[in-house]
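dumping this here before i forget
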Amino acid sequence: MLNNAVSYANQGPTPNLYWGSVTLEELRAHNLYRGLPEAPPSLEPSMYRYLRQETPLWSALHQGLLSGSSINAVLGFYEPLAAKRLGIPSGYVGHGKVLSACKNLQLPQYVPSPADLASLCRASPPPASQIKQPSSAALPAEDFSAMKPSAATVAVAASQGAGSEKCRAGQGSNRKKRGKRKAVPVQPAGLALLGKESVIAHSVRPHDIERELQLRRMGVCMRKAAEGIGAVRCKWGNTQEATALFELMHALPDGSLEEVGLCMADPAALEARYGFSLGRLPPMGASPDGLMRQRHASPAASALSALRSAFGGLSIRDCSRSALDLEVVEVKNACPYRQVTTMTKKGRAKISYVLADGGPHNRIARNWVAQLQLEMLATPANSALLVSRSATKGLTIYRMWRDEEYLRAMLGFVSRLYTEYVLPGRPAPANIFWGLPEYASFLERTVALADGAAIVAHITAAEVARAACADLGPFL
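structure:
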């Protein structure tokens, strides 16, 4: 059963940032999705990939780490001249981005303790049979996970804001509320039914918990609306990530979608493959939104071959040569709201929002290329799927191939910044790398990779699988 309502109110003071959303717990209950366990087997770096991304420990591990959220800053993409060449929106541009990224890389890496592993186990809710009806006063303001502050929670504060532009868990929206208040375990908002056309079932939460959840969501929406369109876009991307993955599963039902945590790049492997001696690269890792395992269809081979011919120097892989199994998945949700400011009779500014869904992105943005390539480096995978989802106009799925020459050049600039500025403690100059011939070539290669990404599928709004119990109102 699909629920594809198409008639919406088109304006209101408070956008519903949970409109049509699927929660992470609902996604993990889906038979087509392979979720992560409550806690990884151990806290060795190779096991970070099994750590759920909404945990404080996942956030703490970004201290002293170069990740997908800071790679653009480290490469100088947010410096004015490079940003202009790449066509990056002005809102991202600023020299402070690279300075913050360098500051984070100067911090020591966070080393998890046994207490961190124990806190992960305490954070998980008990089975449904053990849940008792609580009073609404027992519910915390931000979420329902029972977790006392651990060393990881404290370490988050040291690493936040250091080179991170991506609005994700640990960057403000999904952080655990600090404090010693006890939280009430909560059932997921719905459980997935079996079958390829499965949808999310109706809520199984007790009525008072359901009411508290709705009140909390209303509060979040009102706060973000008051903060402005930037906060609205950021929170929309957070709340709709699981929804995009849910729709991806139905768009590519023959594939297997997996949850993944923080994938650490092996320093020894980087040294052997790219020739960088130990200590000349910072610790690196990436957290894709998911991993997809599937066999690629042959019709894409001709399109990719044409792209290889058009961009001669690019090492774009032709899927006719080998059927690849593992792909990283990255979600980019297009916010459907536009801010409108009017003046009241008393001369005060009044902010409202208009539903103006422009649809999925019509191409891969140039400032997504390095992030996708880093994710492929860390996983490792040979290709990446980028899912651009809109609220009312479907979703488009792009594929980008791993490019070894690009990765080698990218790591070269990372090493240069790390050894010349981070380790000596020198501030990086404005427009870093600009004027170097190899940097100009690197920027051109970035443009070519973005523009050369192939469209795997476009799923119209009528074809998108919607959750039956999802909130259908775009405004509160």
